[in-house]
C-alpha cells in the first residue's frame, strides 16, 4: 500500500472515530431539548449514572413542587409546560444518598443541571430516610410482632419508636397510653379516647413493649440489624410526573382527597375541624371551619369526603358524631346528628359516608366505628327528614361491623372491615344482608370503591393485596402486591384498565393492569401516610390523587407510560 493511501485511510479512520466519540459524548450528556425547562444527569461515585432517583423542583415562594424520576441513563427532565422561569430549590429522594443544598435559575432557555449525589455513611441518617415498610422489612421479629409495630404508623413514623431509648419496663406504660389515643392522633394533636379506669398494662401490651425494646436503641448505640432498602424505580415506573401541593396550616392532616366535577380537590382534615378545597391550577387553598357538635378532647377532625349528584360535599365528622354537608355554590354548611344520647355513644365516631346514589331513594349510607350497640355499625339515613335507621342482623349472623361502607348504583351497600374475612351486601330496600368469603383468610378489606360495572374494589390491608368482587358471578378475584408491607388501604378502578391503590407503609402508589396482572409501583416523593385513593379518570391515562395525612400535602401522580 502506498504511503499516500495509508495516510488517507488513517485520516478517514481518525475522522470516523472522532465522529463516533462525539456521538457517544452527546448520547451520554444530551443537549437540553427546546421542550425542556430543566434537565440533567444524576450520578454518584458509588454507582455512576443512577436510575430511579426522584428529583423535585420548587420555585421560590411557591407552594407547589414538581417531581420527576431519572431514567436508565440517569437523565431527568422537567418539561417546559411544568416549569416557568425563576429560582428553584432542588431535592431528591434516593435511599442511601443525599444531595447538598442545591438551587438553580431556570430561564426561558433550556437549563442544564447535573446532580452529584453522596452516599450516606451514617446508619442514623440512612434509618431516617427509610419508609415504614423498609423499616418493617429490616427489623427482626415474627410477623405478629411486626404487625404490632406496624400499628404505630397510624399516628407517626416508625423512626419515633426505633430511635427511642426506653427499656421494656419503661415502654409498657407508653404502649398502654398509645392505645388510649384515637386513630387520628398525631404528635401535634394527641387526641385521646374517653377516660377509662386505671389498670395495669395488658399481657399483649407488655409483649409489644418487650419486642419494641429489642429493636430500639435502649441497650445499643446503633442498630444491630441490617437496614434494607427497596430497589429504586426502573423502567416505566420512572416515566411519571408528581405534583405536591403544600397546605396552609403546619398541622394540616388531609385524610381523604376527592376530585369534584370542576377539577377542585376537596380534603377532610383528620386532626382539625376544617373542610378544605385546593385549586390544582393555582395551588390556592380555601378552608371552611366546621361547627362543633361536641366540645373538649372530642373536638377533633373528620374522615371521609364524598359528593352527591348535585355536587354537594359530605364529610364524616368523626367524634363530633355528625354528618356535615356543604354546598360549594351557596357555601351553606349543614349538620345532621344521629338520634343517640351522648351516654350511648361511648367511643363511637362517625367515619364513612356514601351519598353517591342518594337520588335513587333519597337515602345515604353512614358508618359509625366502635361505639356501643346503640351507636356503632351501619345506618341508613334520610337527610330530608333526618331519619336514621340502624341496620340490624338476625341472631347468629356473621360480624358486620364495617370499617367502610360503599353504595352501588341501586343504592345497596357493601360493607368491609380489615379484621373480617368477609365482605357483605345490604339491600337498600329490605335491609337484608348477604355475606361473601374472601379467598384469603385474614386478608381483610379496609376501604374500597364501586366501578361503572357495579363491581367492588377494595384494599386487602392485612393480605397485602387488591380484591375485586363481581356481583354477576359472585366471585372475588385477588392480586398480591409485589412488595412487602404495601398493605393497600384503599383501591379504585379507572373504569378502563387500571386499578390504583396505596397504603401507610412503603410510600408506593400501586397501579394494576387488570387485563394482564402487571403492577407498576410509583415511589412517592417523600414519606406519605395514605388512607384513601382518588382516581382521576380523564385523559389518555388515569392518574391518582392522594392526601398525605402526616405530611400536610396533596399529591398528584401522573404516569407517562401505559
Overview of the molecule:
This protein is an alpha+beta fold. The protein has five domains: 1-30; 31-121, Immunoglobulin-like (Sandwich); 124-215, no CATH class; 254-289 and 438-562, YVTN repeat-like/Quinoprotein amine dehydrogenase (Methylamine Dehydrogenase, Chain H), CATH 2.130.10; 295-398, Beta Barrel (Thrombin, subunit H), CATH 2.40.10. Helix content is 14%, strand content 35%. It contains eight helices and 38 strands. An eight-stranded antiparallel beta sheet has the order 8-6-3-4-11-38-37-36, with no helix packed on it. Strands 1, 2, 5, 7, 9 and 10 form a six-stranded mixed beta sheet that branches. Helix 6 (168-179) packs across helix 7 (203-215). The protein is globular. The termini are far apart. Mean pLDDT is 93; it is low at 1-29.
Protein topology:
Layout: H1 3-28, E1 36-44, E2 48-49, E3 54-59, E4 64-69, E5 75-79, E6 86-93, E7 97-98, E8 102-106, E9 111-112, E10 115-119, H2 123-129, H3 132-138, H4 143-150, H5 159-162, H6 168-179, H7 203-215, E11 240-246, E12 254-259, E13 265-269, E14 274-279, E15 284-289, E16 305-307, E17 313-316, E18 323-327, E19 332-336, E20 349-354, H8 358-361, E21 364-369, E22 377-382, E23 387-390, E24 404-407, E25 413-416, E26 422-426, E27 433-437, E28 445-450, E29 456-460, E30 465-470, E31 475-480, E32 490-493, E33 498-502, E34 508-513, E35 519-523, E36 533-536, E37 543-548, E38 553-559
Parallel strand pairs: 1-9, 1-10
Antiparallel strand pairs: 1-2, 1-5, 3-4, 3-6, 4-11, 6-8, 7-10, 11-38, 12-13, 13-14, 14-15, 16-17, 17-18, 18-19, 20-21, 21-22, 22-23, 24-25, 25-26, 26-27, 28-29, 29-30, 30-31, 32-33, 33-34, 34-35, 36-37, 37-38
Helix pairs in contact: 6-7
Amino acid at each position: 500500500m502506498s504511503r499516500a493511501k495509508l495516510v488517507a485511510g488513517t485520516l478517514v479512520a481518525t475522522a470516523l472515530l472522532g465522529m463516533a466519540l462525539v456521538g457517544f459524548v452527546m448520547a451520554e450528556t444530551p443537549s437540553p431539548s427546546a421542550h425542556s425547562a430543566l434537565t440533567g444527569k444524576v450520578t454518584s461515585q458509588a454507582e455512576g449514572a443512577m436510575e430511579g432517583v426522584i428529583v423535585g423542583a420548587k420555585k421560590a415562594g411557591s407552594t407547589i413542587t414538581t417531581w420527576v424520576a431519572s431514567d436508565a441513563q440517569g437523565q431527568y427532565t422537567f418539561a417546559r409546560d411544568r416549569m416557568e422561569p425563576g429560582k428553584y430549590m432542588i431535592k431528591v429522594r434516593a435511599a442511601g444518598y443525599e444531595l447538598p443544598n442545591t438551587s438553580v435559575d431556570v430561564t426561558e432557555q433550556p437549563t442544564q443541571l447535573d446532580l452529584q449525589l453522596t452516599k450516606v455513611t451514617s446508619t442514623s441518617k440512612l434509618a431516617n430516610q427509610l419508609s415504614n415498610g423498609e423499616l418493617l422489612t429490616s427489623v427482626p421479629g415474627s410477623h405478629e410482632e411486626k404487625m404490632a409495630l406496624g400499628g404505630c404508623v397510624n399516628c407517626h413514623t416508625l423512626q419515633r419508636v426505633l430511635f427511642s431509648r426506653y427499656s421494656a419496663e419503661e415502654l409498657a406504660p407508653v404502649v398502654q397510653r398509645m392505645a388510649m389515643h384515637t386513630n387520628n392522633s398525631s404528635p401535634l394533636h394527641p387526641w385521646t379516647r374517653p377516660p377509662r379506669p386505671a389498670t395495669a398494662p395488658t399481657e399483649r401490651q407488655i409483649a409489644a413493649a418487650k419486642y419494641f425494646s429489642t429493636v430500639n436503641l435502649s441497650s445499643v448505640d446503633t442498630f444491630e440489624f441490617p437496614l434494607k432498602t427497596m430497589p429504586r424505580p426502573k423502567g416505566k415506573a420512572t416515566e411519571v410526573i408528581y405534583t405536591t401541593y403544600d397546605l396552609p396550616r403546619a398541622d394540616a392532616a388531609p385524610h381523604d382527597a376527592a376530585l369534584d366535577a370542576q377539577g377542585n380537590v376537596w380534603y377532610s382534615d383528620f386532626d382539625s375541624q376544617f373542610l378544605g378545597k385546593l385549586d390544582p391550577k393555582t395551588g390556592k387553598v380555601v378552608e371552611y371551619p366546621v361547627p362543633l357538635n361536641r366540645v373538649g378532647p372530642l373536638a377533633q377532625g373528620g374522615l371521609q369526603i364524598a359528593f352527591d349528584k348535585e355536587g354537594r360535599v359530605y364529610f364524616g365528622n368523626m367524634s363530633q358524631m355528625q354528618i356535615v354537608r356543604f354546598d360549594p355554590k351557596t357555601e351553606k354548611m349543614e349538620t345532621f346528628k344521629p338520634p343517640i344520647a351522648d351516654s350511648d355513644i361511648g367511643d363511637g365516631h362517625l367515619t364513612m359516608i356514601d351519598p353517591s346514589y342518594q337520588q335513587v331513594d333519597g337515602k345515604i349510607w353512614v358508618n359509625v366505628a366502635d361505639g356501643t350497640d346503640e351507636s356503632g355499625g351501619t345506618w341508613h339515613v334520610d337527610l330530608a327528614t333526618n331519619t336514621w335507621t340502624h341496620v340490624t342482623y338476625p341472631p347468629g349472623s356473621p360480624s358486620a361491623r364495617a370499617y367502610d361502607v360503599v353504595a352501588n348504583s341501586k343504592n345497596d351497600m357493601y360493607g368491609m372491615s380489615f379484621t373480617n374475612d368477609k365482605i357483605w351486601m345490604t339491600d337498600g330496600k329490605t335491609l337484608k344482608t348477604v355475606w361473601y368469603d374472601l379467598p384469603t383468610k385474614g386478608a381483610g378489606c379496609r376501604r374500597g370503591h364501586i366501578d361503572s360495572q357495579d363491581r367492588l374494589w377494595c384494599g386487602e390491608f392485612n393480605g397485602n393485596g387488591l380484591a375485586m368482587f363481581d356481583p354477576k358471578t359472585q366471585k372475588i378475584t385477588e392480586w398480591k402486591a409485589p412488595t412487602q408491607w404495601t398493605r393497600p388501604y384503599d383501591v379504585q378502578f379507572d373504569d378502563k384498565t387500571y386499578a390504583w391503590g396505596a397504603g401507610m407503609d412503603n410510600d408506593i402508589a400501586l397501579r394494576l393492569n387488570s387485563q394482564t396482572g402487571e403492577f407498576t409501583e410509583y415511589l412517592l416523593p417523600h414519606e406519605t401516610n395514605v388512607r384513601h385513593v382518588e382516581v382521576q379518570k380523564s385523559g389518555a391515562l388515569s392518574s391518582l390523587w392522594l392526601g398525605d395525612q402526616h405530611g400536610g400535602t396533596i399529591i398528584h401522580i401522573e404516569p407517562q407510560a401505559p
